[in-house]
Each structure stands twice: as structure tokens, then as C-alpha cells.
Amino acid sequence: MQKINKNVVLALLSLTSLVFLLFQLYYYKFYLSQKNGAVFSKVRGSQSGQDSTRWHVVRKFLGLISSHNIPVYLIDPLILGLVDKDIEQIRSSPDGPSPECKYFCAPRDFTTFALLDKTWKHEVGLFRTAEKMGFQWLKILNKDPRLDGMDDLSGIEIPLHYIFKLASHAIHLVVFYERSGNYLWHGPLRLKQHMDRKFVPFRKLHFGRYPGAYEKPELLLVSIDDLKVQIPKNPSSFLEEMSHSRFLECRYREARAFFQLYPDDASVDAVEFRKKAKSLLHLAALTLNNLGVKFWLSSGTCLGWYRQCNVIPHSKDVDLGVFIKDYKADIIPAFQKAGLPLKHKFGKVEDSLELSFQGEDDVKLDIFFFYEEDDHIWNGGTQAKSGKKFKYLFPKFTLCWTEFVELKVHVPCETRQYVEANYGPDWKVPVKTWDWKSSPSNVQYNGVWPVNEWDDVIQIY
Amino acid sequence: MDEWKPNPAIKPHKKRSWYLAWKYKLMNQRALRKLCQTGAVLFLLVTVIVNIKLILDTRRAAYEEEEESAQDYDDEMLNVEVPRHPVSNKKVLDVEVYSSRSKVYVAVDGTTVLEDEAREQGRGIHVIVLNQATGHVMAKRVFDTYSPHEDEAMVLFLNMVARGRILIFTIKDEGSFHLKDTAKNVLKSLGSQVAPFLSWRDMWTFVGKKGGEVYGEKHAKSPALSTWGDPVLLKTEVHLTSVEDAECRWPDTELNHRRKRFCSKVEGYGSVCSCKDPTPIEFNPDPLKDNKVFDVPVAVIAGNRPNYLYRMLRSLLSAQGVNPQMITVFIDGYYEEPMDVVELFGLSGIQHTPISIKNARVSQHYKASLTATFNLFPDAKFAVVLEEDLDISVDFFSFLSQSIHLLEEDESLYCVSAWNDQGYEHTAEDPSLLYRVETMPGLGWVLRKSLYKDELEPKWPTPEKLWDWDMWMRMPEQRKGRECIIPDVSRSYHFGIVGLNMNGYFHEAYFKKHKFNTVPNVQLKNVESLRKDAYEAEIHRLLGEAEVLDHSKNACEDSFVPDTEGRVYVMFIRMEQEADFTTWTQLAKCLHIWDLDVRGNHKGLWRLFRKKNHFLVVGVPASPYSSKKPSSVTPIYIEPPAKEEGAVA
């Protein structure tokens, strides 16, 4: 009897410990899955590596926003990349049930959606419903850049990003604002001190490191993985746009400091010149954008943007830069068609090309072509009467978007280096007399055009 | 199970026994038993290992996460959080109230909440309302009860204050001369013993709870007519109640959250904060069919007149076709209370650091507001500009929706305005009638973006120029001969009595009797004939059918116009050249319409109503319409009285 008793006790204890062990294993697995994102049992997708948590969270989120009539669209670069490969098929069968979960099941921390600010009313109800559905949410506010140029206005802070977290997956909702210049803008994601830094792995976000500028996208309603979502009509061009969407805000505070030191010229002439320069710039931007030629603000126009967020009234022309690889023979006829006749053409495509167009009333549009070398970028200048060549050297730069006179345009991201290369360390001091052959601090003498080429490389109209 | 926690010391032994167990298994039953024992122990061992691994993994994961914590995304500016005032659990407030001839002050818990020692200012009874739960100042008013009617305003105000609030009174200089019995009785009902006997130049302080206890009262009688009572200083304690007691129990809705926030901060807005059946703060007026101004931003220009703003926003949000999302209130200065009002209605508000002084300050505020409006709504082609002291007609947006396309299509137009300068009760009649005028009336108007961006903004008067923005906009350099469209019956009503260019007398004389449309959905009848050329044809047709009045009679007399209805009459006045308004000004004076400068003219023609007849005034010979004058008629000339300077608003 005793023996049996002892055995029974032992068996019971073993069983308990087995149960205990199983529980521990289960808990461990649960914990791991939470880390990698698989809290729900695999309802969809039997293949390994698939993760239905994400699919469920996205579906819940889409349900949430559609119940509040908020139109969002998918901008997740990883999903759009996958979608782009099958875009024809997706477009042709917008409603077909998908055999497998292809897009929303890859285990990721985030799925990114975009929201146009003006399409919703900031109802608090959304967040209440979200909480009821089990979402935790985070709102990232910041200053309204549309009022940033106006120091004396204390605008309300506007929401730039929302993050909705459910279980192991989070939805990153980027708020896009329409700005002067007919483009969309999203803000940077910056955490305030009191915010929870571990709410989600912020580093893995695809949007928010920098502010960005985008064209207004055309949208397409598609059904992928049995979820109806809006996506940009052309995902590949959206992804391309995203890759260089970084936006620089004008340095309004510095500009105000500048105007404190050097009061703005409010004379009739200055007002008139600014108006003309603005319309010339708008016309040039339209023409070059239609041709698909990438350009940026250069020289004096760039300095005006960087230093005072405005056209420098005594600059008397508008300067643009274009990489020589983007040169198109159509540029000259296109400008002529737009009512801007060629004034002069210096250099040739292979060397030191520079075009000038005649705008309204003596306002000139200069387009400088830039040549990339291994460690620097340069553009050329030519003195018409002597055939002398000059070279202006710049450190390498990339292009960023900015807003200037109600226009979305490129400027070099490394603007300060660019401006300093051109105007030296004293660029902050306005100079009214400027000699393009000697004043720039980055000018180099570059020989003389051979006389037999003069007819080609020095054309004045 | 605790006793099964394995002892590491016996581990090797157990391992051996596990091996031995296999050996003994075949030999006897005991071995099996031992095997089971060992098995159980082993299970537990594994459990422990798994446990430890779990702990380690969790730790590592947590550590990694910490590493990852988005440094890139940190706000660059380490905005140091301003430590909030610790929530004081104190239940008692120390209140000090001082009353004297030249100075009053009120301090709550050592913080001065009112101090007024300015000369020639702040005479009368100062009233402060405190929240009975938090001790915060909810309202501050001064009623100059030395002057007539101010006591009525005070009674009105005190009646609006919710029960339970703490009221503090103090007199500066003189507060009894026009303090009538009604007001004295109200003060008495609040618990004041002295109020009924307050007399000339007495000093008085009083602290009490509305509808409750009295915390203290002090009084110093003036010994003689020529002297003031001695200064009095009242020090007392006020017991705070719990927050729940200080709030109403409204249903838990989004709207009531806003209401609650508002009502716990400010006082003096009447029924919006009443516990039983409060006035709505959401209006849901009927939408307009085919609303062409639904997407037009509305800029409300405001200063520190929160009660005005409250009244204005109520009427604006009640107008048919309003789109609250397009409304932005621009507040000139960092005033809290106007912002509270804006938030009460769920609108967005922007505060503006004051630049410059007086008129230039207003002008800079306008510029900033307009620029911001077009920045915030980059798609907008127009903006509606309103001020905080306007009532908005119920068909305001309907009126704009029907007329705004003219502003888009007709280059000769400067603005569409809801205000007719000459539209008084006795001179305006037809809500469906529109005019073209050469003057810009303002007071509720639509601005074209291109006009602002291309012309006005770049040369807007700079802060050092003390100009009125509206006067500047009326200057020929800006207006360039363009005209505004106005209705015969105004769609806005100017109710402001206090203001930069405004006082009670001025308001009574020029604004009080202004006609204001209250009819909804008025169908405008002559919209297309408002275009430049069509309007000329219209005027010629009108003049053609108009009966010429008897020019031998006195134009100022009522009998000048026959006792008819619905007829068109014309009179001719002398107007030597385009800028000669001598007779017009005199006529305007005797007709009791706007006479401070010339308003409402179109090429030397004024259109208004007299005795319900359309009444045209043509200036001869300056007006091109002079040709319509029969040769027998001599234009009327009215001699101006001896030179007298009139203020111009």
C-alpha cells in the first residue's frame, strides 16, 4: 500500500510539474511572439513566416477609420513595393479574393497610412472608438509650419503623426497638409520629453525622420489580401518620389533677424521686381517641370531664400541650376514657347553651358548647368567680349524640397555650404555691387575659348 | 510544489541515479519507482532552466529596446516642462481687498489679481468673480456707477453669475452717484449690509458667496461732500468647496466637455453655463443648396472683447451654410478669455503678438490674419473677413454664395461686402437688391486672394505708419477705380459700443438704427445686372422710369417725397466736380444717414429708399447721369453751416 501511495504521489507531482513546464513554455512562446508580432493564432496563411497579426490589426484599423468616414491611403513603402510588382493584376481584378496573404502578412512592426488633413474634422470620437477596440494611440503635435513664417502668430499646434498600436503591430498614420504651392507636406516626428520613447520602435518608421514634400497623389481603390484600401495610383512613382522627398523649411527666424539688421526694401521698385521675379520663377518652374527637368534655386535666388526667405529686390535676375545630365535640347524652344526668348547661350553641353532667357521688363532668367566630378560640382561662366572662361566650384550636394514664393522647388540640402562656396563667409551681409567674374569666392580662371568656337559658345541675341 | 525546488547540490547524485535506474529497471520494481522519482525531479530541473532563460531573455529584450529608443526622434529643443502649480489641497483662501480714492487692489492668497491706481481711470465698482472650488479668477469687471446706466449693466452681470461663485467688490473713487435702488437691492440680496446706504464718495469692500454666506464687508463713510472716505482694507478668509460641488452635472458628451471647461474658467456668459437646460453651443443650421462659399475660409478678426466675440460667433455659427471648419479666429494679443470662447465653440483660434500701437496695431493684425488665412487654406481663392463686433445675418452665406462669382469674373470689382453704409431703417427696404458702390464698406466682406497677394500684401502699411487699414484700402492708389457689391439691406450688424474708434454716442448716432436682414433664404434678384456694363444699362433704365421730384421743395423735409410706395424718384443736387460733396453731405445730415465721409456713391449717384420708394440722387454736372436731368430743373444746393470739424471713423 505504502509503495502504491508513494507512486501515486510521485506521478501526481510529475504531472503537476509537467503542466507547470508546459505553461512556462507556452508563456515563453507567447512572449517571443509578442516581440516578433504574432499574438493571434495563425488564422490566415499556413506558410511559415507569415503573420496574421498584422493583417488583423490593419483590418481593424481600416474598420475604425471607415466607421468615422476618414479617407486614408496606404503609403507603406514595403507593401507598395510588393504591390507595384503585381500592379497590373491588382488593377485588373479589383475585387477578386486573394488565395494567400501576400502583402499584409509579412511580419513588420508598422504599416504606414497617410491622411489628408482637410478631409477630416479632428473628431475626438475616433480616439474613443479606437480605445474601445483595444488600440493604444499616440499623437505627435508640432508647430504649424504654414504659420511659421509669421513670428508674431502663435498658431495652434497641429497633429503631424498618429500611431495606433494593437498587440504587436502598430499603424503609423502620417498627416499630410496642403501648403501654398499646391503640394502636400508632412512633418518630422519629434518626441517631446514626456512622451513614451518605447511606445513603438520609432527608429524603424519609414516617415518622420525629416519632413517631406509630395505632389497630390491620384488614388486607386484596390482590394489586396481581401482588404479594401486606397493606394497611390502609381506606386512606383510614389516610391520614387518618397526616396527624395526631404523638405527644408525656410529659416524664418534667421530671416527675421536679418531684416532687423537690414530693413526690407519696401519701395515701389522693389515690390514690382519681386512680383515680376515671382511670376518669372513660376513660369520657369512650370516649363521645366513639364519637360521633366530637375532644377534648383541657385546663386542670388538661393541666397535670397536662405538668408531672407524672399527674393532679393536688388538682384535683378532669377537664377536656377540644372545638372548637365538632365539637359534637354527642348529647353530652349520650350521657354521660347512660354514667351521667354533666349537672350544668350554660353558654352556647350560638354563644357560650361549657361542659358539666359529674357523675362518681362529686364528681369532675366539664368540657367546654369552643373557638372559633377568625383569630389566637387562646378558650373561655368563665360565673358562675352574676351572669350574668357570661369569655373565656379561647389562641394557636392543633394537636393531637397522647399517652399519659395508659393512654389515647391528644390534647393541644395547642404544650403549653407553651397551659399558659402558662392558668396563666402560674409554672405549674411547684403552687397549691392556684385561682379560675377571676381566677387564669388569660388571662382577660378578656366582658360579661354578657342576663337574658332566662339560662334558656337558665345551666342548673344 | 515549493519543496520540489531542486537543490543544486544533489544534481550530480541525481544524474547518477538516473543512469543507475536504467540498470535496475530490469531487475526489480524498486528501480521503476526510483525512475519515476528521478523523472519528476528532472522535470522540475528543466522547468527551472526554462524559467531562468525566460528571465534572461526578457531582460535582454528590455535592454535592447532601451538602446533603440529613438534618439533621432527626440525633439531637438529640450523644452523644459514648466512645473505645474502643485495642486493645492488648501481649503481656505486668504483674500485682501482694498478700496480708496486713487487705488484699489485685490489679492488672493498673496497673488494680486486686481491692481488699479491709474489716474482718471477705473472709477466705480470693481467686481471680481472667483471659482468657489479653485479660487481662480473667472471674471473681472468695473462698472462706473458714477455715470448713468452702468448700474443696470452691473445688475445684468451679477444676475448672470452662477450661484455659489465668490464675488468681490471694491470701490475706486466714487461708485454711488448713479447706483440706483435696483442695484442696491441686488447687492443687499448678496448679503451686503452697507450697500443700501452707500453714499457719495464712500469707500466700500465686500466679499461674499452668491446665494450664500458673507465673508466680510468694510465701509468708510465720506465725512463731507468734498472729501473721500478713508481707505479701507478688508482681510478675510474664504472656504473652498469641492470641485464636484462647483460644477454642473451635464450629460457626458463631447460638447459638454467643452462647456465644462469653459464654465469652470470664466463667468458672465449667462445661460450657456446654466446647470438646468443650458443654451446649445452647437447650432446645425440648415445647409445651403449649391453653396459656393462652403470652402471659402472665414477669418474673424478679434481683440480682447470676449463677450462680443461670444455673441458674434453665436450668430455666425447659426447662419445657414456656415462651415465651422473654415473659420479661424485671430486674436490680437495673448488674451485667454477670447481663446476660451473660441474653444467653447470648437473653432480654431490663433493669437497674434501685438505690433505697434492704436490703428497701426489693428492694421498689422489684419495683415497677419489675412496672410495666415491664405497660408492655412492655400486652395482658397477668397476669404471672408469678419470682425468680432458684428452680428451675422441668417442668410449671410446665401447672399455671398449668390454673388461671389461676380468677384471672380468681373475685374472691375474690389470686394463684396455685407454692409451698406447708407442702409438705415428708414433708407433701406429691399433685401434682394444689390448695388455697386465706389467705397469699400468693410464690416463683413469678401477679399479676393489675387488682390491681396499681388497688390495689397506687398505694400501693406508698415507698423510705423499709424494708418487705418480700411482707410488705406479706400485710397485711390489701392482701389484703382474698382467697386464693391453691397446689398440694400445689410447682412451684418455692427453692435460694438466699445472699441478703438467707437463710443456709445457714436454708436447710437450712426450704427444703432442700421437695418439688418433677418429673412432667411432671400433670393437676390438682379445679380447679373451687377456686372460693369450691365449695371450702367440698369441705371439708365432706372433713371428713365424715375419721376423727377419737385425741386422747389425742401429736400430735407419729409414731404419732399410723395406718400407713395414702390415708386422710383430722382433728385438732382449740385456737384461741381467729382470730389465736390458739399450738398451731398448736407443732404446726408438731414436724412440722418452716414455723413462723416462720402459712402455709397457710384459715379455721382446715390441709391436709397425713402418712404418705401426707391430714391435716386444725382450730382450735377459731375455725374455722367446728369444728362437725364430735364433742362427745367435746377440742381439743389444746400449751404453747409459754419465750418465745424467732425470726427471721422
Automatic annotation (TrEMBL), chain A:
- Name a biological process GO annotation: glycoprotein metabolic process
Q: Keyword Transcription regulation: yes or no? A: no
Indicate the transmembrane segments per the record: 7-28
What region holds the Ribitol-5-phosphate transferase FKTN N-terminal domain?
1-278
The record's Gene Ontology cellular component field reads: Golgi membrane
**UniProt keyword annotations, A-Z:** Membrane, Transmembrane, Transmembrane helix
- Does the record's keyword annotation contain Transmembrane helix? yes
One Pfam short name? LicD
Indicate the principal place this protein occupies in or around the cell: membrane
Q: What is the name attached to this protein's record? A: Ribitol-5-phosphate transferase
Q: Where does the protein end up?
A: Membrane
Which membrane topology term applies here? Single-pass membrane protein
Q: Which family does it belong to?
A: Belongs to the LicD transferase family.
Q: Which residues form the LicD/FKTN/FKRP nucleotidyltransferase domain?
A: 292-329
UniProtKB/TrEMBL annotation, chain B:
Instruction: State the superkingdom.
Output: Eukaryota
Please give the Gene3D superfamilies that the UniProt record associates with this protein: Spore Coat Polysaccharide Biosynthesis Protein SpsA, Chain A (3.90.550.10)
What kind of membrane protein is this, topologically? Single-pass type II membrane protein
Q: Which UniProt keywords apply?
A: Disulfide bond, Glycosyltransferase, Golgi apparatus, Lectin, Manganese, Membrane, Metal-binding, Phosphoprotein, Signal-anchor, Transferase, Transmembrane, Transmembrane helix
Any binding details for the cofactor? The manganese ion interacts primarily with the substrate UDP-N-acetylglucosamine.
BP terms from Gene Ontology:
protein O-linked glycosylation via N-acetyl-galactosamine
Record-linked InterPro entries? Glyco_trans_13 (IPR004139), ILEI/PANDER_dom (IPR039477), Nucleotide-diphossugar_trans (IPR029044), O-linked_mannose_GnT (IPR052463), POMGNT1_PANDER-like (IPR039474)
Q: Name one GO cellular component term.
A: Golgi membrane
EC numbers on record: 2.4.1.-
Enzymatic reactions: 3-O-(alpha-D-mannosyl)-L-threonyl-[protein] + UDP-N-acetyl-alpha-D-glucosamine = 3-O-(N-acetyl-beta-D-glucosaminyl-(1->2)-alpha-D-mannosyl)-L-threonyl-[protein] + UDP + H(+)
Cellular location(s):
Golgi apparatus membrane
Q: Which residues form the ILEI/PANDER domain?
A: 123-212
What does the record's free text say on domains?
Answer: The stem domain mediates specific interaction with beta-linked N-acetylglucosamine moieties of O-glycosylated proteins. It also interacts with its product, N-acetyl-beta-D-glucosaminyl-(1->2)-O-alpha-D-mannosylprotein.
Give the family, as the similarity comment puts it.
Answer: Belongs to the glycosyltransferase 13 family.
- How is the subunit organization of this protein annotated in UniProt? Interacts with DAG1 (via O-linked mannose moiety). Interacts (via transmembrane domain) with FKTN; the interaction is direct and is required for normal location in Golgi membranes.
What does this protein's UniProt record list under function? Participates in O-mannosyl glycosylation by catalyzing the addition of N-acetylglucosamine to O-linked mannose on glycoproteins. Catalyzes the synthesis of the GlcNAc(beta1-2)Man(alpha1-)O-Ser/Thr moiety on alpha-dystroglycan and other O-mannosylated proteins, providing the necessary basis for the addition of further carbohydrate moieties. Is specific for alpha linked terminal mannose.
The name under which this protein is listed is Protein O-linked-mannose beta-1,2-N-acetylglucosaminyltransferase
Please give the organism. Answer: Pygoscelis adeliae
